Amino acid sequence: MCGRFATGLIAGHLDTAAWLDIERDAPRPDWTEDWVASGDETRAPLLPVIPAGDWPRPSWNVAPTQHAAIVVSDETGVARRKVLSARWGLVPRWWRKSLAELKASTFNARSEEAAGKPMFRDACAQTRCLVPALGYYEWTGKARAKTPWFVSRQSNRPGLCFAGLWAEAVVDGQTIRSFTILTTAANDATAHLHPRAPVVVAEDDWEAWLTGGAGAHLMRPLDATRTEVREVHRDVGNVRNDRPDLIEAVGLGL
Question: What separation in angstroms does the CA of 95 have from each of 66, 90, 101, 110, 150?
Answer without folding.
Answer: 19, 10, 10, 20, 34
